[in-house]
């Protein structure tokens, strides 16, 4: 493999990993506050459909991004009302949200299938994009890839260097203690749930406005589920999450690479690689039960009712 091929492979892995990074980051922040939302796939699909529709009907890609984030937040708000206000089971509600989002996006987006738009294009940064190998990889990307870098840096800073981040982590570790200190636990969890929905919508918009500028049913192809595994893989650490997203992005395009190298294996088997990698990672992580318990937020998935405490 020559340098050009390796560079193209890395660029493809970065692009493929970007939607995983965005949606997994939103879920990581949610889980840090104790909220387990398994509805990522449904929210991402709604974001992809709404973002494409918004861009198609307004002729403005920025409007598409806003609509996608609002669609994700609307789905997240529904989840929040059910789990945070009505105290329904978070796991069951998240699964129902995925089913609901998958069906609703297919229904509302039925008339959009076959429509096309001009999606986000690469924007080379002067001078930096001319750096050998690194330049085209990091500094000749579309605006959403650049946005993902900024969002990740801001999320890390907020989570680890600000009072807001301390509050989020406190709510996730001991909501009863946080409530005793005057922190509005439910309010905090609503806020991060909406943030998670916005990130899922943004990830969906990347799929339909940048990665493949079109809409089709189930176009996220299980990325919401991979993102959930990715959060666990990263042990709820943003740095590891970023690395894992691009690693999973690489596994997602390995089948194209192997076909390009002439490997005589069924394309269907090669397409299974990212999902097989997800299973193997989860099995490996489950083998170290003590480490996993130490990394997991203490109140993850547990309901909290301030009236009972």
Automatic annotation (TrEMBL):
Record-annotated membrane-spanning stretches: 6-30, 42-59, 65-86, 93-117, 137-159, 190-212, 224-248, 269-287
Membrane topology: Multi-pass membrane protein
Pfam families: BPD_transp_2
InterPro entries linked to this entry: ABC_transp_permease (IPR001851)
Superkingdom: Bacteria
Cellular component GO terms, alphabetical: plasma membrane
Keyword flag Transport: no
PANTHER family given in the database record: ABC TRANSPORTER PERMEASE PROTEIN, SUGAR ABC TRANSPORTER INTEGRAL MEMBRANE PROTEIN-RELATED
Keywords: Cell membrane, Membrane, Transmembrane, Transmembrane helix
Protein's cellular compartments: Cell inner membrane
Protein name: Nucleoside ABC transporter membrane protein
MF (Gene Ontology): transmembrane transporter activity
Keyword flag Phosphoprotein: no
């Amino acid at each position: 493999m020559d340098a050009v091929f390796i560079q193209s492979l890395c660029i493809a892995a970065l692009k493929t990993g970007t939607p995983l990074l965005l949606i997994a980051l939103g879920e990581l922040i949610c889980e840090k506050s104790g909220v387990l939302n398994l509805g990522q796939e449904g929210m991402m699909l709604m974001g992809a459909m709404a973002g494409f529709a918004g861009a198609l009907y307004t002729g403005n890609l920025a409007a598409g991004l806003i609509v996608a984030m609002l669609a994700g937040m609307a789905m997240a708000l529904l989840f929040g009302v059910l789990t945070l206000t009505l105290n329904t089971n978070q796991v069951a509600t998240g699964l129902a949200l995925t089913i609901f989002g998958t069906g609703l996006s297919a229904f509302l987006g039925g008339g959009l299938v076959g429509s096309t738009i001009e999606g986000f294009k690469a924007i080379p940064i002067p001078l930096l994009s001319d750096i050998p190998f690194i330049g085209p990889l990091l500094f000749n990307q579309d605006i959403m890839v650049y946005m993902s870098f900024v969002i990740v840096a801001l999320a890390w800073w907020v989570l680890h260097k600000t009072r807001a981040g301390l509050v989020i982590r406190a709510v996730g570790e001991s909501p009863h203690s946080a409530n005793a200190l005057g922190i509005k636990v439910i309010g905090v969890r609503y806020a991060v749930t909406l943030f998670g929905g916005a990130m899922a919508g943004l990830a969906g918009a990347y799929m339909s406005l940048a990665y493949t500028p079109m809409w089709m049913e189930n176009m996220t192809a299980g990325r919401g589920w991979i993102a959930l595994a990715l959060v666990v893989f990263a042990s709820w650490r943003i740095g590891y999450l970023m690395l894992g997203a691009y690693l999973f992005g690489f596994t997602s395009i390995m089948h194209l690479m192997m076909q390009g190298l002439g490997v005589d294996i069924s394309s269907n088997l090669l397409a299974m690689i990212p999902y097989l990698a997800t299973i193997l990672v989860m099995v490996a992580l489950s083998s170290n039960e003590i480490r996993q318990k130490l990394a997991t937020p203490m109140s993850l998935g547990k309901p909290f009712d301030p009236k009972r405490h």
